Amino acid sequence: MSSVIGIDFGTTNSVVAARRADGSVAVLQHDTAEVFRSVLCFWQDAEGRPRNAAGPRAIEAYLDDPFDARLIMSMKSYLAQRSFSETRILGRSWNLERLIAAFLGHLLAPFQDELAGAQVVVGRPVRFVGETADDAFGHRRLTDAFAAAGLPEVQLAFEPAAAGHRFAQSLDAPATVLVADFGGGTSDFSVLRFDPGPPRRVTPLGHSGVGIAGDAFDFRIMDHVVSPLLGKGGTYRPWGNDLPIPPGWYIAFARWHLLSLMRAPKTLRDIADVARTAAEPERLAHLVTLIEDEAGYALYRAVSGVKAALSGADQARLSFRHAGFSVETDIARADFEAWIAPELAAIAGAVDAALRDAALAPREVDRVFLTGGSSLVPAVRRLFEDRFGAERVVAGGEFVSVAEGLALMGQH
């Protein structure tokens, strides 16, 4: 049994950590993996019974039968969206809380002994994803999802503050720290004052967040490289006049959590209708095939892999093939950084907002701690080095620091 369990339920990945009675913290592993993919898959077995799985087993089940399986991704991105109430899967209605509870059941199943009697601390973003996001609604929905999973007494804490607690373990003197946590769907920032004690004290000074992070960077690659090959920017002639192909299709296609909505029969019919008079109908035919064949997951993996490769190289190749559609192109880091300039500007604005909330100037921040996958993007790190100086910026625990920090926060 553990004294505290920290649960980082993420847009892309989830991590569970435990604080033992002796104060040590360990990430709880599934098989040999610390990180568990935040995906669900639904299908029917040979006898027609509904089945579901999460994490790597969900991906395996989906790849075994992508035509009849239903893959659910980026559930966290819907939490603060009142427009998402429910979806139908294999003839049954599922609201978001039940979907997340089903995922949590798989995530936490191996750790029931650790959970018995433990205090549970769950991370939440400072700002939830979405232009119309209702943060209070997202907070309540997240709490309800954990209650539906059998954990009605969880405490919620800001994810960057949790990462800050983890970083503070390395401090031996008082310090003011800006923590930047880059998830799949949000970028969150906390300014914290640490006094190592004894007793150890942590004082929150300011917070901010923006619904932009790794998924938005992937979107830019999709939007600039892949979507034009599927008809984006093209025209069709319904009444003898050239009209632009609806751009909304490509916004949805390029975002993980919206792709499943494009399988609606009406959307597919609309694309087919436009293709009849399109200047390049074969491109729209490829779009329909990728949607119908549920090939989006494989495409997203290829795109995300290129993004990761560009963190260590000036150029990377995007290579993808499916049913006659192919992408073979080199992407330069300089182009990628130009594409994500709007996201970088929004992140910079959120950093400034956190400093304003803390009533501090950049020179008054002693250390900057970056964590999360997008902290590895050179342009992101450069943003902080330019503001605070390279000597004050450190990074680490890209995928586990929030969960470990949540477990540490329990003692406070």
Keyphrases for this structure?
6-stranded mixed β-sheet; 5-stranded mixed β-sheet; 38% helix; Nucleotidyltransferase, domain 5; 412 residues; 15 helices; alpha+beta; single chain
Uncertain runs with pLDDT below 50, 5 residues or more?
Answer: none
Distance between the termini: 19 Å
Strand share of the residues? 25-35%
Q: Can you say what the CATH homologous superfamily of the domain at 4-163 and 404-409 is?
A: ATPase, nucleotide binding domain
Structural class: alpha+beta
Question: What's the architecture of the domain at 4-163 and 404-409 in CATH terms?
Answer: 2-Layer Sandwich
Number of DSSP E strands = 20
Give a brief outline of the structure.
The chain has 412 residues and is of the alpha+beta class.
What does this 3D model show about the protein?
- The chain has 412 residues and is an alpha+beta fold.
- The protein has a domain at 4-163 and 404-409: ATPase, nucleotide binding domain (Nucleotidyltransferase, domain 5, 2-Layer Sandwich), CATH 3.30.420.40.
- Helix content is 38%, strand content 26%.
- The chain contains 15 helices and 20 strands.
- Strands 1, 2, 3, 4, 10 and 11 form a six-stranded mixed β-sheet that branches. It has a five-stranded mixed β-sheet with strand order 14-13-12-19-20, sandwiched between helices.
- Strand 5 and strand 6 form a beta hairpin.
- Helix 2 crosses helix 4 (135-148), helix 5 crosses helix 15 (401-409) and helix 6 crosses helix 11.
- The chain is globular.
- It starts with a strand and ends with a helix.
